[in-house]
């Protein structure tokens, strides 16, 4: 009986050891940056995906829900300075330049940041 128990324990350990693995997160796909960046097609989906859970009406400013985001970002050049991504507080938050990195879940890929920067540098149009 003792040998059977030892055999079963060894078999259990072997089965557990061979079944242990973890999935690696695939790298985030690079975003293809279009010639003309559209706020509604290219930028707002980024807010919807990664930001509106915290930045919504009645929560942390700026309000990034679809109906309010453009005005919230561009009014009085508070977060976005059209034509100057490097001076915009939005850019600084995305890269951690004197500001906390946003989103809080982790820094965006360089291609996402480049997309937002291109939109800002091209005048931050509401298109």
Automatic annotation (TrEMBL):
Keywords: Heme, Iron, Metal-binding, Signal. The keyword Transcription does not apply. InterPro entries: Cyt_c-like_dom, Cyt_c-like_dom_sf. Residues 1-22 form the signal peptide. The keyword Ribonucleoprotein does not apply. GO terms for molecular function: electron transfer activity; heme binding; metal ion binding. Residues 38-124 form the Cytochrome c domain. This is Cytochrome c. It comes from Flavobacterium franklandianum.
């Amino acid at each position: 009986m003792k040998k059977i128990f030892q055999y079963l324990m060894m078999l259990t350990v072997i089965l557990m050891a061979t079944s242990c693995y973890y999935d690696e997160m695939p790298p985030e796909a690079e975003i293809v940056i279009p010639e003309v960046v559209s706020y509604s097609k290219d930028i707002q989906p980024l807010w919807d995906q990664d930001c509106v859970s915290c930045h919504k009406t009645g929560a942390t400013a700026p309000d990034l829900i679809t109906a309010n985001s453009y005005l919230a970002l561009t009014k009085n050049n508070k977060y976005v300075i059209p034509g100057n991504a490097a001076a915009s507080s939005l850019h600084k938050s995305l890269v951690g330049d004197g500001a906390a990195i946003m989103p809080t879940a982790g820094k965006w890929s360089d291609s996402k940041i480049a997309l937002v920067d291109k939109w800002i540098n091209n005048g931050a149009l509401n298109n």
